[in-house]
Amino acid sequence: MKRTMILLLSMLMLLLAACGKETEQQAFQPGAPVEAAFTLEPKELVAGDTVTFFVKVTQDGQPVDDAKEVKFEWWKDGQEKHETIPASLQGDGVYTAQQTISEPGSYFVYYHVTARDFHNMQKTPFTVNSKTGATPSTPQANAGQSHDHGAAGHTNAETVDYHFSPADNIQVATPAALTVHLMKDNKALDKATVKFEFWRGNDEKHSFVDATETAAGQYEGSVQFSTAGDYTVKVHVEKGDIHDHKDFSLSIK
């Protein structure tokens, strides 16, 4: 009888362990990626026109109406200054924003979509024609200024586009997530080695944290700032011949 009870208890423990492992695997199973499709109207722009940027956000074919953040970043080819405008949900997963552009020339626009633990971004070139009818040449999507949100990195033939996204309201002595989304040639830069280096003001001591790729081209690291102040966060990226870094400013309360 005692042996039978021990056998039954052993089988029960094995069953519970198997169920627990299965549940754990299900809990960590990633969801379907969030997709984004971009358009703009009108297709033929003239200086002084108002352009409407559209991005339709879906997951597994279904509209995503609960995106954490959707915005558009645009700039004129050759200019360092970028303008960023927030998008509004129109329904059925469609987010839009409008911008009046007064100068003719070649432009770029990035959409940034943060939703359900995914971040999507893509650069699209567009042209604003002169009222006199002159048509500037349309730039290529992988041309123009590097999208860095910060200071320039190493000079090399590789152009890495950065979108740095720290957690909101980071507090002193509290673990917080730093996230960066990397792209090259308008495609996610995956399987790279990424590190966050950070320091306060002119401090000589610098701290380093390895980042983990949580989605294609999206890297996250957990950091903790010991004191309040203005910090510099340098993102280091290495993959093959790519050896790059960018600086970003971060204020900790």
Automatic annotation (TrEMBL):
Q: Which domain of life is it from?
A: Bacteria
Which residues does UniProt assign to the signal peptide?
Answer: 1-17
Alphabetic keyword roster: Signal
Task: Outline the segment boundaries, as ranges, of region: Disordered.
Answer: 125-153
Task: Please tell me whether the keyword Glycoprotein is annotated for this protein.
Answer: no
Report the InterPro entries cross-referenced here: Ig-like_fold, YtkA-like_dom
Instruction: Spell out the Polar residues composition-biased ranges.
Output: 125-145
List, for all copies, the residue spans of the domain called YtkA-like. Answer: 34-112, 156-236
Could you identify this protein by its name? YtkA-like domain-containing protein
